[in-house]
Specification:
The complex is a heterodimer of chains A (113) and B (451). By secondary structure, chain A is α+β, with helices and mostly antiparallel strands. Chain A has a single domain, classed as Alpha-Beta Plaits (2-Layer Sandwich), CATH 3.30.70.120. Helices cover 23% and strands 33% of the residues of chain A. Chain A contains three helices and six strands; from the N terminus they run βαββββαβα. In chain A, helix 1 runs antiparallel to helix 2. In chain B, strands 1-2 form a two-stranded antiparallel sheet. The radius of gyration of chain B is 22 Å and the shape is globular. In chain B, helix 3 runs antiparallel to helix 9, helix 6 packs antiparallel against helix 8 and helix 9 runs parallel beside helix 11. Chain B has one domain: Ammonium transporter fold (Orthogonal Bundle), CATH 1.10.3430.10. Chain B starts with 7 loop residues before the first helix and ends in a 9-residue tail after the last helix. Classes of the chains: A alpha+beta (113), B mainly alpha (451).
Chain lengths: 113, 451
Amino acid sequence: MKYIIGIIQPDRLDDVLKRLTEKEIHLVTVSSVIGRGRQQGVAEVYRSHKEPGNLLKKIKLEIAVNDEYVELAVDAITGGARSGNIGDGKIFTLDLEECIRIRTGEKGKLAIG
Amino acid sequence: MVRKPKGKVLSLCFVITCTIFLSSTSAWASESIGVTELVKPVIDSGDTAWVLVSAALVMLMTPGLAFFYGGLVRRKNMLSVLMQCLMILCIVSLQWVLLGYSLSFGPDKGSIIGGLEWLGLKGVGMEPNVDYASTIPHQMFMMFQMMFAVITPALIIGAFAERMRFSSFCVFTLLWATIVYDPVAHWIWGVGGFLKSAGALDFAGGAVVHINAGITSLAAALVLGKRQDYPESVSPPHNLPFAVLGAGLLWFGWFGFNAGSALKSGALAGSAFTATHIAGAVAGATWSLLDWLKYKKPTTLGMITGAIAGLAAVTPASGFVTPTGAIWIGIGAGILTWLAVTCLKTRFNYDDTLDAFGVHGIGGIWGVIATGIWATKAVNPDGADGLLHGNPMQLWIQVKMVLIVVAFSFIISYVLLKFVDVVMKLRVSEHEERVGLDLTQHREGAYTLIS
């Protein structure tokens, strides 16, 4: 089992979710986050006072999958989130030790689906 | 209750009121104002209705200002700004009833202050006061004016937001209302006040409200000093939609502020209503245009700031200028306040947190001067002609009023702030400032993460 974390541009979320659904990956947690990478932020102007804006709004996706779905999930995220510009984001995959479904107490492979 | 006279009753009333008029001459010796009102010093239902509504409209401006300012601070200080505005609504209202109204509008003492005769509203009843508004209950005039006394100190919050101790704020506000606002209101609006007698025009408070609060804001920004992280990393406004909501409420309330200052329903109120709206609209568009040219994008914050600046600038002029005059006042307000906020503040590096000086101080000064340029008796026969209508003297009178109010307001406010600082400290501790005033001054938070 793997735990996949994707950091993507907010405007790409719908596209990524659509592709995940197409690959029958339904389990996903989405949060609104701020962060920074190598790219320069968009400076915002408030009453002529420029805010450097070095922390940018991003979307964080968290997806737990069985091993055979890792490739599919990564493809869905890259496919949906890639624009070719700096700031498209990153994907991290982590080994996942255990997964427990609260309702039934099922564990592991069974619980993820 | 007094009913509106009709037909024969009217002529009878005329005779009676003429007698009253002749027997109480003092205030009217030099003024032609209101002879027509004087023939029927009875309560007019239309006038009273309009002033009642106007007072309520102006009241709404203080919560409106709270949201305007609140949206612009960081989320950890949201409640502190709302609380400061609303606390002013509570304590200055009481100050006004007990003391402030008498000091501002009470029987004149030496042309500089009202007497204590009306302390605790003694004698301020339903009988109209012919000196101020002859067709509405005296008490209603007092209430209308109360709302001005409330919002004026609230404007100053913009200068010291995010760093003032709440207790010191309360003490400062009460002292300021009594020592600064009340005398200035008396000079300009009170019968016998020296600026009023000199012919200075301030229809709805360009000097009394906006210059007064704006200049005090500058003093406050200087005495309190900058916020810890200014100007390097002060976060952007935490909720611009709140600021827009607040600006909308202010704009709405401003119709009561300016058109209500006619103190009667009718042509003058209508013309002030028109001038008010036009100047606000034009100044908002002007600010947007300047943003567009300089920063490539018109900003929401810039637009609402410009509108507020235009509304502030037209305040003293609203009852004296034509719609064309209002357009010029709006354009001037947009340009000057934009320059003040963009250049002046950066150049001199003071932390007028929400630009109370830049918008209200500069906007007010421009408005009072512009009144001396565009005022015309064609709009208000009780006013005066300005520079463009052949009376350059009026401009000089207006400039004098600006200089006097700026000097008085700055010096007294500066001393007052220093005094409160020595006695009880104005600023919160560094730690409290970092944590935010909501938690440290009020033990509350504006927002929870969940639910």
